[in-house]
Amino acid sequence: MMNFRLWNLYKAWRQKIWLRVVAISWLSVLSVVLAQLLAPYVPELVAFKAGSEAVSQILEILASSMLAVTTFSLSIAVTGFGTAAATATPRATALLQEDTTTQNVLATFIGAFLFSLLGLIALNAQLYSPSGKVVLYLFTIAVVLLVVIALIRWIGHLMSFGRMDDTLDRVETAARDALAARMANPYLGGRALTGTLPADCIEIPSLATGYIEHVDMAALQAIAEALEGEIYVVNIPGSFVVERGPIVYLRAKGLSDEDTLRLQQAFAIGPQRSFDDDPRFGLIVLSEIASRALSPAVNDPGTAISVLGRLVRILVEWNTRASVEPDYPLVHISPIKPQEAIEDAFRPIARDGAAMIEVQVRLQKALAALRQSVPEAFKAPCTNVAAYALSLATGASLPETEIALLRDLSQANTSPHTGGADMSV
Fold it and tell me: How many domains does the chain have?
């Protein structure tokens, strides 16, 4: 596992646009310096024939145009973020802000602007010989080519950036990746925490209030070994903890203040949930998008139906592993419960789409499909949510013929032999 401090740095810097801007800016500075260093290797005759004086005009055009293009592109990106927040959910904007294409394009534009600005400063300071101007000219041509490539990518990217389908694709991918990682390592390398906690456990309080983003399992194992005890992690990534409230439990003979601090620092706590180590958050965000689409102000059942299909695609990858060899045998951790995942995904849609027969039909079929595909995990949860959805639809004044249809579909979720679930509406 990644070192915890390195993980925190990675978390803080990952997908930050300023990192790309700084990198390209340093390349701009390096190219200006290289133009001076490589100048002695360019014959003066070549410098004369290459028209070294033209580089100044190209840099002026590049500097003026890149400033305008960067400003315009930033406004487009901000508009895309606002569109996603207004039409989907504000929780999804974080994924758009981390979009690599957008960040690379903006960083290229800013880097080209800084390159041209530095080049003009050096030229006006008469730091270049004719041979040095030739080298700078070649670097300028390379920068222009990069800008053209970035513009082409940017134009193609804007065709879908911030649209509903694009936002849904990003959230689905983030949720599927997080769930796949958790299914491959359901207990984060520790042992499954089942049953109740031992009576002699020591409660360790949290240092802050917020959501757990990451757990340093290697540090917990080392502490447990040093204390010759066992650690019980009830609050997994995505859990909300309160300052001075319990964050982890320790079973050991003794505990110093230093050990307590080490246990507390093994948990990264942030103000908001993130998609990385929290599969349930992706399911919640998808469900939020469906709920907004089902609101009377939007009235877009098609988006809710699309979300139901995406939720099935994500959850059908759920697998139960009876035995996993632990890397940290002294750390017991709570797994994600199938009931929680199903309720996060489908209960809000069942509630907000109770009066829409097309949504209720698709919901019942989605639950039947999951129950059939992963019966060992989803048999009971899907049965419960199907009954919940039927009860809401019954109280939503739907015609009796539609209620009868939903009742037949709901019974498919309680039948021991569901058969092939038809996902068509």
Answer: 3
* Dist CA 124 CA 114 (whole Å): 15
Residue with tokens 């100048």: 39
- Domain-embedded: residue 240: yes
403 and 296 within one domain: yes
Token pair for residue 147? 């800008």
CA pair distance 390, 226, nearest whole angstrom: 54
Q: Angle at Cα 364 formed by Cα 238 and Cα 352, nearest 5°?
A: 60
| Domain shared by 247 and 306, yes or no | no
Question: How many whole angstroms separate alpha carbon 279 and alpha carbon 178?
Answer: 5
- Identify the three-state secondary structure at position 197: coil
Distance CA 229, CA 255 (A): 10
Q: pLDDT category, 235, cuts 50, 70, 90?
A: very high
User: Are residues 37 and 129 located together in one domain of the fold?
Assistant: yes
Task: Map tokens 């990952």 to a residue.
Answer: 14
Mean pLDDT along residues 268-293: 93
Q: How far is CA 369 from the centre of its chain?
A: 26
Bridge pairing between strands 191-192 and 267-270 = unpaired
Question: Is 363 in contact with 389 (CB distance < 8 Å)?
Answer: yes
Angle between helices 130-158 and 100-124 (to 10 degrees): 160
Task: Give 23's pLDDT tier (boundaries 50, 70, 90).
Answer: confident
Structural domain ending residue among the three candidates 233, 250, 270? 270
Q: What is the pTM of this model?
A: 0.84
User: What's the CA dihedral at 230, 272, 173, 342 to 10 degrees?
Assistant: 70
Contact indicator for 251, 198 with CB cutoff of 8 Å: yes
Take residue 188 and report the two structure tokens written for it.
Answer: 């984060």
Pairing state of beta strands 210-215 and 267-270?
antiparallel
Tell me the sheet residues that pair with 203: 249
Domain range for 247 is 186-270
Per-residue pLDDT tens over the stretch 196-221: 898 889 999 999 999 998 899 999 99
State whether residue 203 is helix, strand or coil: strand
179 found inside a domain? no
Which residues 6+ apart lie within 8 Å of 227 measured at CB?
250, 252, 253, 254, 255, 259
Coil vs helix vs strand at 205: strand
